[in-house]
Amino acid sequence: MTRLLVKKGRIIDPSSKLDAVKDLLIENGKIIKIADKITSSGAETIDAANAWVLPGLVDMHCHLRDPGNPEEETIASGTRSAALGGYTSIACMANTEPPLDNRAQIQYAISKAQKEGLINVFPIGAVSKGLKGEELAEIGFMLEEGAKGFSDDGKPIMNAELMRMALQYLSQFDLPVISHCEDSMLSSGGEMNEGALSTELGLKGIPKLAEEIMVERDLRLAEKFGRVHIAHVSTSGSVDLVRQAKKRGVKVTAETAPHYFSLTEEAVRGYNTNAKVNPPLRTAKDVKAIIKGLGDGTIDAIATDHAPHVIEEKNVEFGLASNGMVGFETALALVITFLVNTKALTPLQAVPKLTIMPANILKINKGTLKVGSDADVTIVDPKKEWTVDASKFSSRSKNSPFDGMKLQGKVMHTIVGGRIVVKDSQLVK
């Protein structure tokens, strides 16, 4: 019998509307008691005074590059990086090489994660075979093997009839299509947000309409045929479209990523390829709208969209550089620094977007500290200042535009199934 006692932490558990200083007792991988004062002889004790004790963070959108590109990331390196960021469960997207588009590939991802992963890994299956957007993949078989969602993320589903069929098929399981909303005709060849700055820098722009037109299409399809989850919302127009759709009763959820509420297109100045993402960083107006959308519940979840790339893919001309940035080890600190500390969101508003909301969208039994639940716990010092040093990330890739930025909020301990995997901000060997 293994016991772990977390003492005097501020427990923030939105699933039970708890926000109070209490003790938490873990036994045999489960949370067995939360009370004002707990004593347990023989238990290993963590002093969490002045810290937040959170449900283990859940990332519903990341890229682990396995199979296909182990030089960028592996399940082993990615889950170590995620654990350091306080994540205990992550959902990896299907755009690997080859893609996760059939039963065998889902089996591979799950078995590899069980052997090498430090935390829980849930695979997302492809909507279409080969991510080609032409024919539905083996959705039913992948569900049987353990896929927790479906997306062609990285590529939009341009074929509206295919999107309709995917929505209808998944509606029988009450699961959404996770939609990468991008009109590839409008965005073709684009390198950054379209506007005055793209003109100044001589870079081809990606108009906001490239995202918003597809958001509108998918909302209309979902209104008739099923559920949709809008990935990586980046524009004010998209926020408004989702807000109005929710008012109409459309079955829609949405996510954004930390870089869309903490950075603007100005981060691209100097042709900084680490700030090149898809969808691109937008304007201050869009950042303001996304923060408002997080605050009023229009945007349900915050996902990292962790997208690792080796230096050879980033240290090139801007137009040739790959899209994406790593995000596991900075996400929680960015939420604290840019949302909580600015009072845009309270801790009890911010935490569910990193825990119970993504867990509910994917229908995984995570993101809670309720008694009897799996002992996945994140302990963070919300006041601790630190400077991002991407060279020290556990990810195999270091492509972060936040390198050198001073943030507040440091993960001290990460507990997965009652086992401490990060202690005093260091991986447990």
Topology readout:
Blueprint: E1 3-13, E2 18-27, E3 30-35, E4 44-47, E5 52-55, E6 57-62, H1 75-84, E7 87-92, H2 103-116, E8 120-125, H3 139-145, E9 149-151, H4 160-171, E10 176-179, H5 184-187, E11 192-193, H6 196-201, E12 205-206, H7 209-225, E13 227-230, H8 236-248, E14 252-256, H9 258-262, H10 284-296, E15 301-302, H11 311-314, H12 331-340, H13 347-350, H14 356-362, E16 377-387, E17 406-416, E18 419-423, E19 426-427
Parallel strand pairs: 1-4, 1-5, 6-7, 7-8, 8-9, 9-10, 10-13, 11-12, 13-14, 14-15
Antiparallel strand pairs: 1-2, 2-3, 5-16, 16-17, 17-18, 18-19
Helix pairs in contact: 2-3, 4-7, 7-8, 8-10
Please describe what this structure looks like.
It is a single chain. It contains 14 helices and 19 strands. 29% of the residues lie in helices and 24% in strands. The protein is globular and about 65 Å long.
Short description:
This protein is of the alpha/beta class. It has 14 helices and 19 strands. The strands form three sheets. Strands 1, 2, 3, 4, 5, 16, 17, 18 and 19 form a nine-stranded mixed beta sheet that branches. An eight-stranded parallel beta sheet has the order 6-7-8-9-10-13-14-15.
Query: How much helical structure, as a percent, in the residues?
Result: 25-40%
Please report the number of helical segments. Answer: 14
How many distinct domains? 2
CATH superfamily of the largest domain: Metal-dependent hydrolases
Number of strands: 19
Low-pLDDT ranges: none
**What is the CATH topology classification name of the largest domain?**
TIM Barrel
Class by SSE composition: alpha/beta
What distance separates the N and C termini? 21 Å
Please tell me how large the radius of gyration is. 21 Å
Largest sheet: 9 strands, mixed
Shape: globular
Assigned CATH architecture of the largest domain: Alpha-Beta Barrel
Residue share in β-strands = 15-25%
- For the record, the CATH class of the largest domain is Alpha Beta
Mean pLDDT: 97
